[in-house]
Amino acid sequence: MAALTTTAVVPVSPRSVGGENGQLSLLDKSLETRVNLTRPPDSDNELIKVAALHGAPGMLAVMRARKDYSWFVVLCLRAIEVCIGPRTGKLPVLQACDPVAFSMQMLEMEMIDEIFQVMKDYEHIKDIQRAGLAIIETLVNNDADWRDEVARKGGVGLLCEIAKQRQTSPNILGQVMTCISYLAAEDYIEVMLCQHDALEHVVYVLRQYPKNKELVMRASLALLNLTVCEPHIEELMEKDSILPVLQVFDSHPNNVDLIVVLCGILANFSAKPDVQHLLVREGLFPRVRDAMLLDPHNAVLQVACLKAFVNYSTSADFYMKMEQEGIPTLVGQVMVDHPNDPGVQRFGNYYLGQHTSCPIL
Protein backbone atom coordinates (compact mmCIF):
# COMPACT_ATOMS: atom_id res chain seq x y z
CA MET A 1 0.00 0.00 0.00
CA ALA A 2 1.40 3.34 -1.07
CA ALA A 3 2.28 5.71 1.68
CA LEU A 4 0.08 8.78 2.01
CA THR A 5 1.75 12.05 1.23
CA THR A 6 0.91 15.16 3.12
CA THR A 7 0.13 18.32 1.23
CA ALA A 8 0.93 21.67 2.68
CA VAL A 9 -1.92 24.19 2.63
CA VAL A 10 -0.81 27.71 1.96
CA PRO A 11 -3.14 30.27 3.56
CA VAL A 12 -4.43 32.91 1.19
CA SER A 13 -3.76 36.43 2.39
CA PRO A 14 -6.14 39.29 1.69
CA ARG A 15 -3.49 40.93 -0.43
CA SER A 16 -3.22 37.89 -2.73
CA VAL A 17 -6.97 37.99 -3.29
CA GLY A 18 -7.39 41.65 -4.03
CA GLY A 19 -4.05 42.49 -5.54
CA GLU A 20 -1.21 44.40 -4.00
CA ASN A 21 -3.48 46.95 -2.35
CA GLY A 22 -6.61 44.86 -2.26
CA GLN A 23 -8.61 43.95 0.81
CA LEU A 24 -10.39 40.75 1.65
CA SER A 25 -14.16 41.22 1.67
CA LEU A 26 -16.27 38.74 3.60
CA LEU A 27 -19.56 40.38 2.62
CA ASP A 28 -21.85 38.88 0.01
CA LYS A 29 -22.40 41.66 -2.52
CA SER A 30 -25.71 40.12 -3.57
CA LEU A 31 -27.15 41.22 -0.22
CA GLU A 32 -27.51 44.70 -1.66
CA THR A 33 -30.13 43.54 -4.16
CA ARG A 34 -31.94 40.98 -2.04
CA VAL A 35 -35.40 41.75 -0.63
CA ASN A 36 -36.39 40.53 2.82
CA LEU A 37 -39.80 39.06 2.08
CA THR A 38 -40.99 39.42 5.68
CA ARG A 39 -39.76 43.04 6.00
CA PRO A 40 -39.83 44.48 2.46
CA PRO A 41 -39.55 48.20 1.73
CA ASP A 42 -42.83 50.06 1.30
CA SER A 43 -42.48 50.00 -2.48
CA ASP A 44 -42.60 46.17 -2.37
CA ASN A 45 -45.27 45.82 0.31
CA GLU A 46 -48.31 44.72 -1.66
CA LEU A 47 -50.55 45.18 1.36
CA ILE A 48 -50.11 48.95 1.10
CA LYS A 49 -51.81 48.73 -2.29
CA VAL A 50 -54.60 46.63 -0.79
CA ALA A 51 -55.14 49.16 2.00
CA ALA A 52 -55.00 52.16 -0.32
CA LEU A 53 -57.42 50.72 -2.88
CA HIS A 54 -59.85 48.87 -0.60
CA GLY A 55 -59.74 51.06 2.49
CA ALA A 56 -59.92 50.03 6.11
CA PRO A 57 -62.60 47.33 5.54
CA GLY A 58 -60.41 45.52 3.02
CA MET A 59 -57.34 45.81 5.22
CA LEU A 60 -59.19 44.52 8.28
CA ALA A 61 -60.47 41.48 6.38
CA VAL A 62 -56.98 40.65 5.12
CA MET A 63 -55.39 41.03 8.56
CA ARG A 64 -58.01 38.83 10.22
CA ALA A 65 -57.47 36.11 7.63
CA ARG A 66 -53.72 35.78 8.25
CA LYS A 67 -53.13 37.17 11.74
CA ASP A 68 -51.59 33.86 12.87
CA TYR A 69 -48.40 34.85 11.05
CA SER A 70 -46.41 37.54 12.81
CA TRP A 71 -44.57 38.65 9.67
CA PHE A 72 -47.90 39.16 7.92
CA VAL A 73 -49.23 41.22 10.83
CA VAL A 74 -46.15 43.45 10.57
CA LEU A 75 -46.90 44.11 6.90
CA CYS A 76 -50.57 44.81 7.66
CA LEU A 77 -49.79 47.29 10.42
CA ARG A 78 -47.21 49.01 8.26
CA ALA A 79 -49.81 49.35 5.48
CA ILE A 80 -52.25 50.98 7.91
CA GLU A 81 -49.53 53.26 9.25
CA VAL A 82 -48.65 54.45 5.75
CA CYS A 83 -52.28 55.02 4.73
CA ILE A 84 -53.10 57.25 7.71
CA GLY A 85 -49.75 59.02 7.79
CA PRO A 86 -48.42 62.07 5.94
CA ARG A 87 -47.84 61.78 2.22
CA THR A 88 -44.27 61.81 0.90
CA GLY A 89 -45.07 61.33 -2.78
CA LYS A 90 -42.92 58.21 -3.05
CA LEU A 91 -45.89 55.83 -3.39
CA PRO A 92 -48.26 56.87 -6.22
CA VAL A 93 -50.88 54.35 -5.09
CA LEU A 94 -51.54 56.49 -2.00
CA GLN A 95 -53.10 59.16 -4.22
CA ALA A 96 -56.24 57.02 -4.18
CA CYS A 97 -56.33 56.97 -0.37
CA ASP A 98 -57.57 59.82 1.83
CA PRO A 99 -55.93 59.46 5.27
CA VAL A 100 -58.82 61.20 7.06
CA ALA A 101 -61.41 58.98 5.40
CA PHE A 102 -59.31 55.90 6.17
CA SER A 103 -59.08 56.78 9.87
CA MET A 104 -62.82 57.50 9.98
CA GLN A 105 -63.51 54.06 8.54
CA MET A 106 -61.26 52.58 11.22
CA LEU A 107 -63.21 54.44 13.89
CA GLU A 108 -66.61 53.36 12.56
CA MET A 109 -65.49 49.71 12.35
CA GLU A 110 -63.83 49.79 15.79
CA MET A 111 -60.71 48.51 14.06
CA ILE A 112 -58.53 49.52 16.99
CA ASP A 113 -59.78 46.38 18.79
CA GLU A 114 -57.98 44.19 16.26
CA ILE A 115 -54.82 46.29 16.42
CA PHE A 116 -54.72 46.15 20.21
CA GLN A 117 -55.26 42.40 20.11
CA VAL A 118 -52.33 41.66 17.80
CA MET A 119 -50.13 43.99 19.85
CA LYS A 120 -50.98 41.87 22.91
CA ASP A 121 -50.66 38.54 21.09
CA TYR A 122 -47.23 39.46 19.71
CA GLU A 123 -45.94 41.52 22.62
CA HIS A 124 -42.55 39.85 22.21
CA ILE A 125 -42.09 41.14 18.65
CA LYS A 126 -40.72 44.67 18.62
CA ASP A 127 -41.68 45.42 15.00
CA ILE A 128 -45.35 44.83 15.79
CA GLN A 129 -45.15 47.01 18.89
CA ARG A 130 -43.44 49.78 16.91
CA ALA A 131 -45.98 49.74 14.09
CA GLY A 132 -48.94 49.57 16.47
CA LEU A 133 -47.64 52.49 18.51
CA ALA A 134 -47.04 54.50 15.34
CA ILE A 135 -50.69 53.97 14.37
CA ILE A 136 -51.93 55.03 17.81
CA GLU A 137 -49.67 58.09 17.77
CA THR A 138 -51.05 59.24 14.43
CA LEU A 139 -54.68 58.64 15.37
CA VAL A 140 -54.62 60.46 18.73
CA ASN A 141 -52.41 63.32 17.56
CA ASN A 142 -55.18 65.86 17.07
CA ASP A 143 -58.47 63.99 17.32
CA ALA A 144 -60.49 63.92 20.54
CA ASP A 145 -62.75 61.16 19.16
CA TRP A 146 -59.79 58.87 18.66
CA ARG A 147 -58.38 59.70 22.09
CA ASP A 148 -61.70 58.66 23.57
CA GLU A 149 -61.76 55.48 21.48
CA VAL A 150 -58.22 54.47 22.44
CA ALA A 151 -58.90 55.10 26.13
CA ARG A 152 -62.28 53.37 26.05
CA LYS A 153 -60.88 50.24 24.38
CA GLY A 154 -58.06 49.69 26.87
CA GLY A 155 -55.28 51.59 25.16
CA VAL A 156 -54.17 53.31 28.37
CA GLY A 157 -53.38 50.04 30.11
CA LEU A 158 -51.72 48.67 26.97
CA LEU A 159 -49.41 51.68 26.66
CA CYS A 160 -48.32 51.44 30.28
CA GLU A 161 -47.71 47.71 29.96
CA ILE A 162 -45.52 48.25 26.90
CA ALA A 163 -43.58 50.93 28.78
CA LYS A 164 -42.98 48.42 31.56
CA GLN A 165 -41.87 45.65 29.19
CA ARG A 166 -39.66 47.81 26.96
CA GLN A 167 -37.70 49.76 29.55
CA THR A 168 -34.44 49.05 27.71
CA SER A 169 -35.72 50.26 24.33
CA PRO A 170 -35.48 54.08 24.00
CA ASN A 171 -37.23 54.07 20.63
CA ILE A 172 -40.29 52.21 21.88
CA LEU A 173 -40.35 54.27 25.07
CA GLY A 174 -40.28 57.42 22.96
CA GLN A 175 -43.37 56.30 21.06
CA VAL A 176 -45.16 55.45 24.30
CA MET A 177 -44.29 58.85 25.80
CA THR A 178 -45.69 60.65 22.76
CA CYS A 179 -48.94 58.67 22.88
CA ILE A 180 -49.27 59.44 26.60
CA SER A 181 -48.70 63.15 26.04
CA TYR A 182 -51.46 63.30 23.41
CA LEU A 183 -53.92 61.25 25.45
CA ALA A 184 -53.28 63.20 28.66
CA ALA A 185 -54.50 66.36 26.92
CA GLU A 186 -57.97 65.08 27.87
CA ASP A 187 -58.51 65.57 31.61
CA TYR A 188 -60.32 62.30 32.26
CA ILE A 189 -57.68 60.33 30.35
CA GLU A 190 -54.98 62.06 32.42
CA VAL A 191 -56.61 60.51 35.48
CA MET A 192 -56.86 57.10 33.80
CA LEU A 193 -53.19 57.20 32.83
CA CYS A 194 -52.09 57.90 36.39
CA GLN A 195 -54.29 55.07 37.63
CA HIS A 196 -52.15 52.81 35.43
CA ASP A 197 -48.86 54.22 36.84
CA ALA A 198 -48.06 56.36 33.81
CA LEU A 199 -46.25 58.84 36.07
CA GLU A 200 -43.89 56.09 37.19
CA HIS A 201 -42.99 55.22 33.59
CA VAL A 202 -42.45 58.85 32.60
CA VAL A 203 -40.19 59.53 35.57
CA TYR A 204 -38.28 56.32 34.82
CA VAL A 205 -37.40 57.73 31.41
CA LEU A 206 -36.23 61.03 32.90
CA ARG A 207 -34.06 59.19 35.42
CA GLN A 208 -32.58 56.55 33.14
CA TYR A 209 -32.15 58.52 29.91
CA PRO A 210 -31.50 62.15 30.98
CA LYS A 211 -29.04 62.79 28.15
CA ASN A 212 -31.24 61.41 25.36
CA LYS A 213 -32.53 64.71 24.00
CA GLU A 214 -35.42 63.41 21.92
CA LEU A 215 -36.61 60.91 24.50
CA VAL A 216 -36.61 63.36 27.43
CA MET A 217 -38.45 65.90 25.27
CA ARG A 218 -41.22 63.38 24.66
CA ALA A 219 -41.28 62.35 28.32
CA SER A 220 -41.34 66.00 29.42
CA LEU A 221 -44.33 66.73 27.19
CA ALA A 222 -46.09 63.74 28.74
CA LEU A 223 -45.25 64.93 32.26
CA LEU A 224 -46.46 68.43 31.42
CA ASN A 225 -49.93 67.10 30.61
CA LEU A 226 -49.93 64.62 33.49
CA THR A 227 -49.32 67.30 36.14
CA VAL A 228 -52.29 69.53 35.39
CA CYS A 229 -54.14 67.66 38.14
CA GLU A 230 -52.71 68.64 41.55
CA PRO A 231 -53.09 65.17 43.15
CA HIS A 232 -50.65 63.88 40.55
CA ILE A 233 -48.07 66.41 41.75
CA GLU A 234 -48.65 65.13 45.29
CA GLU A 235 -48.08 61.59 44.04
CA LEU A 236 -44.76 62.60 42.51
CA MET A 237 -43.76 64.27 45.76
CA GLU A 238 -44.62 61.17 47.78
CA LYS A 239 -42.50 59.02 45.45
CA ASP A 240 -39.49 61.40 45.49
CA SER A 241 -39.99 62.00 41.77
CA ILE A 242 -39.83 65.80 41.57
CA LEU A 243 -36.09 66.32 41.21
CA PRO A 244 -35.52 64.35 37.96
CA VAL A 245 -36.95 67.40 36.17
CA LEU A 246 -34.05 69.49 37.49
CA GLN A 247 -31.60 66.76 36.48
CA VAL A 248 -32.87 66.94 32.91
CA PHE A 249 -32.63 70.74 33.13
CA ASP A 250 -28.94 70.39 34.03
CA SER A 251 -28.30 67.86 31.25
CA HIS A 252 -29.64 70.22 28.55
CA PRO A 253 -28.99 73.77 29.81
CA ASN A 254 -28.89 75.28 26.30
CA ASN A 255 -31.84 73.48 24.72
CA VAL A 256 -34.43 76.25 24.53
CA ASP A 257 -37.27 74.06 23.25
CA LEU A 258 -36.83 71.56 26.07
CA ILE A 259 -36.44 74.28 28.70
CA VAL A 260 -39.77 75.83 27.64
CA VAL A 261 -41.48 72.50 28.37
CA LEU A 262 -39.59 71.98 31.63
CA CYS A 263 -40.60 75.46 32.80
CA GLY A 264 -44.21 74.51 32.13
CA ILE A 265 -43.77 71.47 34.38
CA LEU A 266 -42.13 73.62 37.06
CA ALA A 267 -45.05 76.06 36.83
CA ASN A 268 -47.45 73.18 37.47
CA PHE A 269 -45.30 71.99 40.37
CA SER A 270 -45.40 75.46 41.94
CA ALA A 271 -49.08 74.99 42.80
CA LYS A 272 -48.01 72.90 45.83
CA PRO A 273 -46.20 74.71 48.70
CA ASP A 274 -44.19 71.65 49.80
CA VAL A 275 -42.92 71.19 46.24
CA GLN A 276 -42.00 74.88 46.13
CA HIS A 277 -39.77 74.54 49.18
CA LEU A 278 -38.08 71.44 47.76
CA LEU A 279 -37.34 73.06 44.40
CA VAL A 280 -36.05 76.29 45.93
CA ARG A 281 -33.79 74.31 48.22
CA GLU A 282 -32.40 72.43 45.21
CA GLY A 283 -31.59 75.59 43.24
CA LEU A 284 -34.61 76.33 41.07
CA PHE A 285 -34.15 80.11 40.95
CA PRO A 286 -30.62 80.32 39.45
CA ARG A 287 -31.48 77.63 36.90
CA VAL A 288 -34.54 79.44 35.55
CA ARG A 289 -32.76 82.82 35.72
CA ASP A 290 -29.96 81.42 33.54
CA ALA A 291 -32.61 80.05 31.17
CA MET A 292 -34.09 83.54 30.75
CA LEU A 293 -30.65 84.81 29.73
CA LEU A 294 -30.24 82.14 27.05
CA ASP A 295 -32.28 84.11 24.53
CA PRO A 296 -33.71 87.39 25.90
CA HIS A 297 -35.45 88.11 22.58
CA ASN A 298 -37.40 84.82 22.60
CA ALA A 299 -40.82 85.78 23.98
CA VAL A 300 -41.97 82.16 24.27
CA LEU A 301 -38.99 81.31 26.46
CA GLN A 302 -39.51 84.40 28.61
CA VAL A 303 -43.20 83.63 29.18
CA ALA A 304 -42.34 80.05 30.16
CA CYS A 305 -39.77 81.26 32.70
CA LEU A 306 -42.15 83.89 34.09
CA LYS A 307 -44.80 81.22 34.62
CA ALA A 308 -42.28 79.15 36.55
CA PHE A 309 -41.62 82.14 38.86
CA VAL A 310 -45.08 83.64 39.40
CA ASN A 311 -46.36 81.58 42.32
CA TYR A 312 -43.11 82.06 44.22
CA SER A 313 -43.54 85.85 44.15
CA THR A 314 -46.41 85.64 46.66
CA SER A 315 -43.99 84.52 49.38
CA ALA A 316 -41.83 87.21 51.00
CA ASP A 317 -39.08 84.69 51.77
CA PHE A 318 -38.97 83.40 48.22
CA TYR A 319 -39.11 86.93 46.80
CA MET A 320 -36.06 87.91 48.84
CA LYS A 321 -34.19 84.88 47.55
CA MET A 322 -35.11 85.87 43.99
CA GLU A 323 -33.88 89.41 44.65
CA GLN A 324 -30.53 87.94 45.61
CA GLU A 325 -30.42 86.33 42.16
CA GLY A 326 -31.43 89.58 40.43
CA ILE A 327 -34.64 88.07 39.11
CA PRO A 328 -37.07 90.99 39.73
CA THR A 329 -34.76 93.31 37.79
CA LEU A 330 -34.53 90.75 35.00
CA VAL A 331 -38.32 90.43 34.86
CA GLY A 332 -38.68 94.19 34.56
CA GLN A 333 -36.17 94.24 31.71
CA VAL A 334 -38.03 91.48 29.91
CA MET A 335 -41.25 93.50 30.11
CA VAL A 336 -39.44 96.51 28.63
CA ASP A 337 -37.96 94.39 25.83
CA HIS A 338 -41.35 92.83 24.94
CA PRO A 339 -43.90 95.65 25.37
CA ASN A 340 -46.35 94.21 22.84
CA ASP A 341 -46.31 90.58 23.95
CA PRO A 342 -49.47 89.91 26.00
CA GLY A 343 -48.00 86.85 27.70
CA VAL A 344 -44.90 88.66 28.91
CA GLN A 345 -46.93 91.62 30.16
CA ARG A 346 -49.54 89.46 31.86
CA PHE A 347 -47.19 87.20 33.80
CA GLY A 348 -44.71 90.00 34.38
CA ASN A 349 -47.47 91.98 36.09
CA TYR A 350 -48.46 88.93 38.10
CA TYR A 351 -44.88 88.61 39.26
CA LEU A 352 -44.10 92.25 40.01
CA GLY A 353 -47.38 93.72 41.13
CA GLN A 354 -50.55 91.75 41.55
CA HIS A 355 -49.11 88.81 43.53
CA THR A 356 -51.94 86.63 42.32
CA SER A 357 -51.58 82.89 42.73
CA CYS A 358 -51.90 80.90 39.51
CA PRO A 359 -52.67 77.28 40.48
CA ILE A 360 -52.61 76.03 36.89
CA LEU A 361 -50.62 78.09 34.43
From TrEMBL:
Do you know which Gene3D superfamilies this protein is assigned to? Leucine-rich Repeat Variant
Name the domain of life this protein comes from. Eukaryota
Q: What is this protein called?
A: Armadillo repeat-containing protein 8
Annotated organism of origin:
Alexandrium andersonii
- Name the lineage: Eukaryota, Sar, Alveolata, Dinophyceae, Gonyaulacales
